[in-house]
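Give me the 3D structure for Adenosylmethionine-8-amino-7-oxononanoate aminotransferase.
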Amino acid sequence: MPDAPAPGPGGAAAGAAAPLLELDRRHVWHPYGPMPGREDPLVVESASGVRLRLAEPAAGRRELVDGMASWWSAVHGYNHPVLNTAARDQLDRMSHVMFGGLTHEPAVRLARLLAEVTPEGLEHVFLADSGSVAVEVALKMCLQYWRSLGRPEKRRLLTWRGGYHGDTWHAMSVCDPEGGMHQLWSGALPRQIFAEAPPPGFDAEPDPAYERGLRELIARHAHEVAAVIVEPVVQGAGGMRFHAPGLLRVLREACDEHGVLLIFDEIATGFGRTGALFAAGHAGITPDVMCLGKALTGGYLTLAATLCTPRVAEGISRGEVPVLAHGPTFMGNPLAAAVAEASVRLLLEGDWAGEVKRIEAGLREGLAPAAELPGVREVRVLGAIGVIQLDHPADMAAATRAAVSAGVWLRPFRDLIYTMPPYVTADEDVALICAAARAAASAG
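Predicted structure for Adenosylmethionine-8-amino-7-oxononanoate aminotransferase (444 residues):
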């Protein structure tokens, strides 16, 4: 999830945090930041519910409401007793065992559960380490499928602009080639095929010209395209843009008509974030391959999954290399799998849809006034996602300081002040997040 470095609000920490920050500057390379770091991050000593407790106060705040759910993963909040118990119980049995030639109950139970709750037809589950790796596996599945069917020329990928699918190599090739952060690698990455970005708006009216162009592009390149890959309904780290579910049906129809596989990257949208359990549900369709991650373990451990239909699995199995040539060392990690199953069941057994709808209402009410602020281009909300888009790049340092001063942790990027809070966030904390986002927009 890309962003730019922002200084730790309140300046250098004193007291107990100072030695830790000195070691951090010397040794720790933070995401999307320089080495050595130019500014101090905030030091978190513990977390519970929706609150992060800092080792030293920042802007007079010792606790911050987390409006980011740890990059959208901690949907149940922190230090949840159900997930803690799942982790402890599994730790007493075994924390890890290789998955090659061996199997275990946590992975089997998780795979069965994912096959049950995802769109009908996704029956086979490949467990990976992270979202980016899940995308790599999905792309490899599709490339190997066509090679196994005697169509090795079908090795390109098609997507639309504005997307983001991760930071590993092939995943970068299907991110936005100009507006994204991966343009540094243009000329080295595989060259893929890009449609124009989808028309904005979840409730947007159909655009016949755009849909026709999308169908024509798929038809024109079907002889060389293995798969279409998109983030359904919400383009996340590429710009927090929403599009109409009907476009997913257009993709499904065009892919079926022209012999192209369809991948949905639901790493950010899966497990209720958009108001549907999976964003594919807004369109009522099943992709050939689906990627899951982030909220899968409730933010406890790194784990992702790539699911596919029997058609894809059987196609690969008919090839000269009848196996999927991928095998992470920590694939199917029992500890992560046990927590993931507990997290998914906790979601399903609760009123996740009601909680997301409640948060959506709070975000709509609390962020609406931001539309009148100078420098704000648009305010948009879908499910438990709230976005303030500026008409200029945000001043990351100033925006972060303003949010922290208001008692909230937000992480703006590019021209966006946004929030994707845990589903357990109470109404008063949703209101606090909205106030902090407005303050960040004013400062940024």
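Residues 1-13 have pLDDT under 50 and may be disordered. Let me know if you want a second pass.
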